[in-house]
């Protein structure tokens, strides 16, 4: 991944974390690595543990950010979440996606998709 793409990704993840905090989600972990891949954000809200995948795009030239979550990526997200829930003995959890459009220095457009996999 290019340094530019990494910078855009970090910016999007920070924007997502700020968005979640604004709505009283408590951030537990960021960029947690599991044997099945990485979880961008793990947070809690109203007693629910939420695993958040953040997708950032600077434009819709290649489609909306959420369109990049393939069946393979969905399987990795589910495996990561299941691994974490087993390690922490969690019962109530869900997977969300936050799609970010924009670039550093601009106001991000944020769309929050809740409970996308289970």
Compact overview of the structure:
This protein is of the alpha+beta class. Helix content is 32%, strand content 39%. The protein has a 5-stranded mixed β-sheet, sandwiched between helices.
Report on the architecture of this protein.
By secondary structure, the protein is of the alpha+beta class. The protein is 32% helix and 39% strand. It has two helices and five strands. The longest helix has 20 residues.
Q: Quickly give the CATH architecture.
A: 3-Layer(aba) Sandwich
Question: If you average the pLDDT, what whole number results?
Answer: 93
- Gap between N and C termini, in Å? 29 Å
Number of strand elements: 5
* Helix share, percent: 25-40%
**What's the CATH C level?**
Alpha Beta
Reported for the largest beta sheet, the result is:
5 strands, mixed
Residue runs with pLDDT of under 50 for 5 or more positions: none
Number of domains: 1
Radius of gyration: 14 Å
Beta-strand fraction estimate: 35-45%
Task: List strands and helices in order, with pairings.
Elements: H1 3-22, E1 26-34, E2 37-45, E3 48-57, H2 71-88, E4 93-101, E5 109-117
């Amino acid at each position: 991944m290019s340094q530019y793409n990494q910078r855009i990704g970090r910016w999007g993840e920070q924007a997502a974390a700020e968005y979640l905090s604004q709505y009283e989600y408590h951030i537990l972990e960021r960029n947690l690595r599991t044997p099945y891949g990485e979880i961008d954000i793990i947070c809690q809200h109203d007693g629910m543990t939420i695993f958040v995948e953040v997708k950032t795009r600077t434009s819709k030239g290649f489609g909306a950010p959420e369109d990049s979550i393939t069946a393979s990526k969905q399987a990795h997200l589910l495996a990561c979440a299941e691994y974490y829930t087993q390690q922490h003995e969690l019962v109530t959890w869900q997977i969300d996606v936050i799609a970010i459009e924009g670039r550093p220095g601009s106001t991000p457009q944020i769309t929050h998709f809740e409970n996308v996999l289970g």
